[in-house]
Amino acid sequence: MALGLILCALVNVLLGFSNSFYAYVGFVIALGVFQGMGVGPSFITLANWYPKKERGIYTAVWNISHNIGGGIVAPIVSLSGFALAALLGVSMANFNETYWHMNHFYTPAAYAVIISLYALYAVKGNPKNEGLVDITEINEMRGIKTEEIKAIETPNLSSFEIFYHYVLKNKNAWYVAWMDTFVYMVRFGLISWLPIYLLETKGFNKEQMGIAFWLFEWAAIPSTLLAGYISDKIFKGYRMPPAIGAMVIIFFMIIGYFTSNNLYMVIFFAAMAGCLVYIPQFLASVQTMEVVPAFAVGSCVGLRGFMSYVVGASLGTKAIGWAVDYYGSWNAGLIMLLSACILCILCSTLCHFSAKKKHQ
Fold first, then answer.
1. Where does the chain have alpha helices with state H?
2. What is the pLDDT of residues 6-29, one digit of tens each?
3. Which residue has the higher pLDDT, 61 or 252?
4. Can you tell me where the transmembrane regions are (predicted)?
5. Rounded CA gap, 232 and 56, in Å?
6. 303 and 229 in one domain?
7. How far is CA 82 from CA 85, 113, 114, in A?
8. Same domain for 191 and 335?
9. In the predicted model, is pLDDT for residue 342 greater than 90?
10. What's the start-to-end Cα distance of the chain, in Å?
């Protein structure tokens, strides 16, 4: 995790020196790869430290970090620009023209290095190594069956054998992977095409579109925290009921913003869709930790990540764009988004009943 963040910082610095298009593309690809290095370790750490009935809220706090991180980039860049301009003794106009790469690339990289060093110091693998009560003992006290606890013991298997036996052959892992695939199809479909649709079809100006898009992103933070709390306290560790409820509402919100011509209603529908689409995405992350033993969480995250980003994101961006161009109507995109909602609800339902049967 810490290594990935340090490598991200290094790539960010190199981006500031890049003048070649191909070098820029290569650095962006590398940035994506290095950013992904933190996902698996994060899930494994959460699975090792927090019992099942408390993972929802703690994973929710972890999950909103990317929303917060994305939201604080602009203030960090702006404030560091003023500070660096004063330090260099130049005007802001001169700084923005000559030294702009310093606050856009180097400052975020410096923050990343500091946080990575803190993570290296503070994040521990599991409680047992720190002389604390092991999570399996806590789970046993919380009522998890003995046979399930025994299955958590790490077997003497290779990484591929763990992936094959505990992930590829696990129908619950596939339910979660396909569920998240359709969530990402909806999410990326909205993120990619919402601005263009609002500008071209609804006649929004860029400021109005910006407000709708801003609400789409920031509304995710309170909804994610609430979903984590509800799944822990009300649904007793079952993650799919809130996810299903969110996708049902998203279904009607998508219809609303495609059919409404009222500015405020469209902004409301967009904000609600953004508020809710991160709920099933986040709960799929939590469910991933609970459909496989702790030692197989990283492999299961890999499958879900591949399905989500490669299949789901591609369907939400390229496939919807192709359908709109081919049929010459945004209705084609609407049908694809609504179909993804229905398929996500189906996969979530299968996952819920399978999890319920497992813990009976």
1. 2-17, 21-35, 39-49, 55-63, 65-88, 92-98, 100-101, 107-122, 135-142, 146-150, 159-163, 171-200, 206-218, 220-233, 240-259, 263-288, 297-306, 313-314, 320-327, 330-358
2. 999 999 889 888 788 888 888 888
3. 252
4. 26-50, 71-93, 105-123, 173-199, 211-230, 242-258, 264-284, 291-312, 332-355
5. 6
6. yes
7. 5, 21, 21
8. yes
9. yes
10. 36
Q: Is 249 part of a structural domain of the chain?
A: yes
- What percent of the chain lies above the pLDDT cut of 70? 89
Same-domain check for residues 159 and 113: no
Structural domains of the chain, count? 2
Whether residues 180 and 321 fall in one domain? yes
Tens of pLDDT along 215-267? 666 777 888 888 888 888 888 888 899 999 999 999 999 999 888 888 788 87
* The predicted structure's pLDDT at residue 151: 44
HSE-up of residue 359 (Cα within 13 Å, Cβ side):
17
**Residue 182 forms part of a structural domain:** yes
The fraction of the chain above a pLDDT of 90, given in percent, is: 23
Q: Is residue 135 part of a domain?
A: no
Phi-psi sector, 230: left (phi>0), alpha (psi -120 to 50), beta: alpha
* Whole-number pLDDT of residue 208: 65
- How does the average pLDDT of the chain come out, rounded? 83
Q: Which helix (H) or strand (E) holds 294?
A: none
Up-side HSE of residue 218: CA atoms within 13 Å toward CB?
8
Residue 321 sits in the same domain as residue 208: yes
Rounded CA-CA distance 23/28 in Å is 9
Q: For position 194, which CATH number holds?
A: 1.20.1250.20
Instruction: Identify which of 61, 35, 32 has the alpha carbon closest to the alpha carbon of residue 46.
Output: 61
Range of the domain at 111: 2-128
Contact present, 54 and 200 (Cβ < 8 Å): no
